[in-house]
Amino acid sequence: MSHRLLCITFALALALSASLVHADLASTVAQVKPAIAMVGTYKATNSPRFALRGSGFVVGDGGQGNKLVTNAHVLVPSSEVDPQATLVVQLRMGSSGWQTRPATVLEVDTQHDLALLRFDGPAVAAFKVRSSDAVQEGQAVAFMGFPIGGALGFSPVTHRAMVSSIAPAALPTPTASQLNPKVIRSVRANSPFDIFQLDGTAYPGNSGGPLFDPETGEVLGVVNMVLIKGTRESALTHPSGISYAVPSRHVLEMLERNAGN
Q1: Which of 68, 123, 174, 216 would you label with 183, given CA atoms 20 to 30 Å apart?
Q2: Is 153 in the same domain as 239?
Q3: In whole angstroms, how far apart are CA 207 and each of 2, 27, 47, 228, 246?
Q4: Average pLDDT, whole number, for the chain?
Q5: 64-73, 200-209, 221-230: which range is least confident on average?
């Protein structure tokens, strides 16, 4: 085979590989999209009645009812709870549009900024959660959610990304002047754990959304735009725009603790 023919063959192989990757993600998005949800509060006297607080995703663990994972910070702080407002999740039910379902909190894992909710009603599509222990730096991933608090419309948005680093959630603070009360509380209360640093750009409304394998749709992490930024980037005057995700191993542990609920 001539050198020129070899180059052409290699180029065609690369193009075919790229097209297959795009095709895989397209089919994966269609598969998992029904399992993405908006998390927020509902109050009949408010305008709008639904206030979006973040993203979430339905999980299937063999327990009772439907369960949903999100970030703990997506939930309304107890000091701000309006007794007339209801915690709800909104799911896209095909051509019938968004359906609102009341939700209850099963567990809040403040250390990893995770929360597990349960909502009633007919079973819906769910993500499969895979262990994140085998995730490697340089691995291709995707994430889905409702960026900028729904400012772009209540339609789930998917982004490609790469795991650019696996590193501790909290960085050592070089100087005392860079310490603040939030960082001190976090260091005292939390045991160190690793997080995924991503090269894709996520926004606050993406918090609680799934980080997943583009080929299989299996969840590998939970996008986090508040807790981790507050510990890793506390010394920065301007946020870096780097995105983070909590590894799915902590989701699996939470699901195991609530298997019978």
Answers
A1: 68
A2: yes
A3: 52, 24, 23, 11, 11
A4: 81
A5: 221-230
Q: How far apart are CA 180 and CA 191, in angstroms?
A: 18
pLDDT tens profile 205-233: 899 999 999 999 999 999 997 665 555 55
Structure tokens at 190: 């939390």
Bridge partners (DSSP) of residue 99 are 91
Q: Is residue 85 a contact partner of residue 41, using CB atoms and an 8 Å limit?
A: yes
Expressed as residue numbers, the domain containing 84 is 33-119
φ/ψ of 230, rounded to 5, equals -70, -25
Cβ atoms within 10 Å of 9's Cβ, excluding its own: 11
Structure-block tokens of residue 159: 């982004």
- Identify any residues that bridge with 42 across adjacent strands, giving them in sequence order: 50, 86
pLDDT at 122: 86
pTM, whole model, 2 decimals?
A: 0.80
Around Cβ 248, how many Cβ atoms within 10 Å? 26
> What are residue 91's DSSP bridge partners?
37, 99
One domain, residues 111 and 154? no
257, 69 Cβ separation under 8 angstroms: no
* Domains in the chain, number: 2
Residue 243 forms part of a structural domain: yes
Domain contains 101: yes
DSSP codes of every residue in 124-157: ---BPB--STT--TT-EEEEEE-GGGGTT-SS-E
User: Do residues 159 and 200 both lie within one domain?
Assistant: yes
The answer to whether residue 258 sits within a structural domain is: no
